[in-house]
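A favour, since you know our C-alpha cells better than I do. Just paste the record in under my message, thanks.
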Amino acid sequence: MAMELAHSRPTCHPRSLWCRSDPWSAQLIRVVGLNGASSVIGKNETMRVLIPYPAAPDSFQDNVAYTLQKLRHEVLTAPLSLRSKSGPGSLLLERAMLRAFPRRWNRFERWVVKAAQEFKPQMVLCLTQSLREEVLRALKLAGVERCVVWWGDPAANIRDMGLLSDHWDALYIKNPMVVQKLRAVGLNAHLMHEACNPDWHLPQNKARDGSIAIVGNCYGYRQFISHRLIEQYDDVRIYGPAVPHWGLESVKASHQNKYVVKQEKSAVFDSAALCLNSTNFTEADNLNCRAFEICGAGGLQAIENKPAVAMCFEPDKEVLVYNTVEEIVELAHRAQRDTKWAQAIRDAGHRRAHSEHTYEDRLKKILAS
C-alpha cells in the first residue's frame, strides 16, 4: 500500500491500521501490522498502544485509535475479520463454545498475545472489553508495561471475573459507585465518562427539519418510548441498526433505514428540532456516548432526568432533561417556537462538550496516569 500525505487532520481507514496525516514532524515512518495494513506515525512517538478489538467506523475503538494517532502515538487495532458473524445462530454457537470450553481463550485473547509479541506495545488498552487473568499474565511476559481498560458500557455487562484482577494496571469506569466498589477491594479504579470526537461530532450547519431524532439500537425500551412519541408527534425519525423482527410496526415505519456515523450522524443531530437520548434499563444512572456526541454536534439534547447529567452538563442550560413523553413533545414544540432559546442551549452544550468531554482530554489522563 502506498503511503499518502495530506495537508489535513489524520483520516483513519475503517480497517484501522493506516492513516493519512499531514507532515507534523520532520520524518514519517510506516509500521506494518498483523493484517498487512499500515499506519503513518511521527518519528518521536513515545507510546505504542494495542487495542484488541476491531475499529468499526465511529465506534469506541475507532474514536480512541483516531485520537491516539492524532496525538502521534502508534496504534494497532484488531482486524475487522475478527468480529463474529452476525445473526442469532452465530451468537448461540459462540456462547455454546464458551460453555463447553470455558478455559479456551477466545479469538481476541489469542490475537492480542500474538500481536503483543510482534508489535511490542507499551500499553494494551481494552475498550469495553475484558481479558482473563492468564491472558494478562501472558501480555506482561511479552513485555507489555501497562494493561488498562476503559469500560464504556454499564458495569452490569461485565462478565465472569471481568475486571476483577490485580493484573489490570488501571480501570476507568463511568459509574462512581462502581469505582468505589472496585477501590474497596484494592483495584486502581478511576471515574471516566465517554466522550465526543470534535473532528467528527461537530455542527454541520444544517437547516432545522422539525423532527425528533433518535439514534441507536432499537432495544425494547427505546422502541416503546419512540412509539409513544410517534403517537403524539408528527415527525419522529429513527436511525441505527435495523429494527428486530419482533419490533413495533410504528417504529419500523419511522426508521430511516440508515446507520449514521461521523459527520452524517452529526448532521442528523444538528438538523433535528430535538434529539432524544434514552437509555436501557441497565444503564441506570450513567451517561452514554450520545450524551456527548449530540452536544458536540450542536444538537438540542433531551436526556433522561437523572443525577449523572449534572456531573457533565448544566441541566436546562446545556442540555434539556425530561421526565415524561409529554415533556419531550413540549420541548420539541418550544424549540421551534423559540429558536433563540433553543440555539442558546445548543451553543452552550457544544462549548461544554468540545472543551471538557473529548476523547483527547480523556486519553491524555489515561496516558499520564
In short: The chain has 13 helices and 15 strands. The first helix runs from residue 60 to 70. The longest strand covers residues 48-54. The radius of gyration is 21 Å.
